[in-house]
Amino acid sequence: MAEAETLSSRDHGDGIVELQLGRGPVNALSAEFLMDFAAEITRLGEDDAVRAIILSSPFKVFSAGLDLKEAQGFDLEQQQAIVQGLNEGFLALYACPKPVVACVGGAAIAGGLFFVLASDRRVAMTKSSFGLAEVRVGADFPVGPLEIAKATLDSDTQRRLMLTGQPIGPIAARNFGFIDIIAEDREDLIGYSLAEARKLAELPSIAYASIKQQLRGETIEKIKAAIAAGGNAPEGGWFNSQTKEAMQRMIDQG
Predict the structure, then answer these.
(1) Which of 78, 82, 149, 228 is the most exposed place for a label (fewest CB within 10 A)?
(2) pLDDT along the chain (254 residues), means of 10
(3) Structural domain includes residue 240
(4) What is the pLDDT of residue 4?
(5) Is residue 200 part of a domain?
């Protein structure tokens, strides 16, 4: 059943729902896409019939982050809208009380990596790659993604990813602790993701949600407080005087 043009779900039985990100061709992030995602992940989190969620993509790229060509033309209102989408979308995922398994069959870059970091178990493929390229496109991190990165990645991994903007492969990501399992091909990727979801779905749901809140509650409240203080609408917008030039340089580099 389709919930929105860019999202669809599949019931695997036993309370396991696969939520597929379908904004082709690379799940580039837009404000509307992120807000639709926030609404859907919240709905699934509140559905008593749902025991575990798998996040997947049908594309070779899991999510490439912002469409840089589109983002270059953002005015102030559009910059604030995408910041709100990033904050609200990934906060909803990070705070979801249900187990979430990221099934990552390709690159997860910049904002796209937060679908992975905000999930509970992360299964990748040998062809997957990961990066936080914001510094290379001349943009800092909105408060939601920033606090999730700080809570999820150790200080050395933050330094490696956030201060270089360079991507890494799945083995390095597993060594850095944010990928759990690496599959050889897409068949194994789906199989491993389903197996992880089934294991999590068998856990007592009330205790799972409570422990997840215990672990993440401080970060969740910090993000909510920053949003309430204006974090969704940064004065002057998200971009600085170097951002559009840096974006064009990234586009030219291919």
Answers:
(1) 228
(2) 73 98 96 98 98 97 96 97 98 98 98 98 97 97 98 98 98 98 97 98 98 98 98 96 96 88
(3) no
(4) 59
(5) no
Does 112 fall in a domain?
yes
Strand residues in the chain grouped as ranges (E): 2-4, 7-13, 16-21, 52-56, 100-104, 107-109, 121-125, 129-131, 181-183
Total count of domains within the chain: 1
Nearest residue to 27 via CA among 106, 143, 112:
112
Q: Which two tokens stand for residue 120?
A: 């509970």
Task: Give me the residue label for tokens 């025991």.
Answer: 51
Q: What was the pLDDT predicted at 5?
A: 72
CATH number, residue 17: 3.90.226.10
- The reply to whether the predicted model has a pTM over 0.85 is yes
Query: Containing domain of residue 43, as a range?
Result: 2-185
Counting DSSP H helices and E strands in the chain, the numbers are: 10, 9
Are the C-beta atoms of residues 113 and 167 closer than 8 Å to each other?
Answer: no
* b/e 33-72 (16+ beta carbons within 10 angstroms → b): bbbbbbbbbbebbeeeebbbbbbbbebebbbbbbebeebb
Q: Give the per-residue pLDDT at 77.
A: 97
User: Do the Cβ atoms of 145 and 227 come closer than 8 Å?
Assistant: no
Is 199 part of a structural domain of the chain? Answer: no
